[in-house]
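Next up, sample data:
>
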Amino acid sequence: PSNRGGGGGGGARRVYTKGASEVVLELCSRIAQPGGEATAMDAGARARFDEAIGKMADEGLRTLTVAYREIAAGEEEPKDLEEDLILLAVLGLEDPVRPEVPGAIRACKEAGIVVRMVTGDNARTAAAIAKKCGILGDEIEEGQVMTGAQFRERVVRPDDEINMEEFDKIWMDLRVLARSSPLDKLTLVTGIQQSKISKPQTVAVTGDGTNDAPALKRADVGFAMGKAGTQVAKNAADIIVLDDNFASIVQAVKWGRCVYDNICKFLQFQLTVNITAIVVACVGSAVLTQSPLTAIQMLWVNLIMDSFASLALATEDPTRSLLFRKPYPRDRGVLSQTMIKNMVLHAAWQLVILGGLIFMVGDICIPSTDASPQVCTPRALSKFVGFYGSQPFNVPTGRPLGFDLAVTAASGACPMAFDLEDKNTWKRVKGVVVPNRHPEYCKSHKGGEESATQHYTIVFNVFVFLQVFNEVNARKIHNELNMFQGIMYNNMFLIVLFGTIIVQILLVQIPGLNTAFGCTDLDVYQWLVCIGLGFTSIPINFLIHFLPYEWISLGSWAGGLDEAAIDEVLETTEEADKTDVEMTAQPQPTMVHVRNPDGTEAS
């Protein structure tokens, strides 16, 4: 740019020019001296200035050259003012790197995010700043620093299309793109998104100028600066960084991963409950002619797995450990192999326990009209469970009588009714005759839709406690071994967890309330057994941790995208970019973050 101002007298004028040092220096033919005169610039003087500019650039200073041209009074203004200039000064301007930026760059590297700098500075200045930030190491490797002219010459065809074959040779190593134009930034973002040499990439761009708008809109995630950014850039971006600080972008990455992981935790828990509840309800209705869980019990279960679980699992705060893992590939499904393994195996274990409780617990009796019924029937595996009055549950069956009669024979295999003459019907304990079968056995609740039984109350209770303890397991979705890590820092999770247990106790034990939920009260021993069976989810999760999951095949059913779908989105975006804001201004320093440069990472 040229600045015109009055200079001298008698109508004489002076034109000032400032700009990039290497550009303006080439336009100068003389050097201003302290006395006001100008001397010719020879090759030696030009070399000294080039050396001084290079030294300042190596120190991370942005160099600016100021020159002027005298136009005598009455002289016609030349067509090209910026030639035959007189060098006035070479300035070195320092924009100090914020103290938190190098640490933020290191955090990005640990998180698998590759940081690239696209700037209008010259290559030496850009490289020096990149070293201070940690983008480049002490030794610059081949291909890490490139100028915009070199970049365009290699990857842009005469028809302005990207030469992807050449582009793929460059972008994996590229870290600094200096003296770049707005089109260079847009080309870099577009090329990385379309590259096929690794998994589909996710690109994030920061910018503050109007010229950054096309790249911000083209990127998968656009970050605009809240203080220095123009309104056009803010409108084109997805996220506005209010404090213009790169460290805030790292916080955004951490929170983004936290929110995504929390959603996955909730899905893992909810789908496990769904699998178990659906199988229990469907199998129960088909085999027993009625579901072991009543409608109002299912509503309570839905409340646990929807509202309460979302509060407990979706309120986990982000931790530093989120930045120690690689990003998810762009085409990765919402359900990972680890999540599917956990859901299927935990649901299978829950079904084994609930199936055993439903079909193997509860003694069978054919009630008669006699005051002292004489006929009992065994049920399958009766010898492993015992009769009424035996351990572990001391309950008669809650299953429909028709089902029990259909699968068992009235063979008198249950203990016979008490008969003092028949020693097989009683035993002596400390000199006292104790009947093997309680005389009121067949007068107790038989079960069915009309009555609440301890048998089905135990089934419901164990089902809920299986979900309560599995909620702890659902906090980890990356096959971590310690599911309790960090649990004490999530107050909401603890409130929901213990609140669910307290409400469950009230639903079962309080008269009237338990009747509404189709339950009856349990004794202390039965409560301990229910809680113990529910707690088995914890050691089972420990065993599941060591099982392989590579055999699980994922696809679109798991919430993933195929490459064709991604390409379609990119083509649509590319068409929209053709009508974007016209790029006119010089680019501001910016950072480009691209994922998965080697197929697993992201940048």
In short: The CA atoms of residues 481 and 545 lie 7 Å apart. The first strand starts at residue 2 and ends at 6. The longest helix spans residues 246-287. The chain has 20 helices and 17 strands.
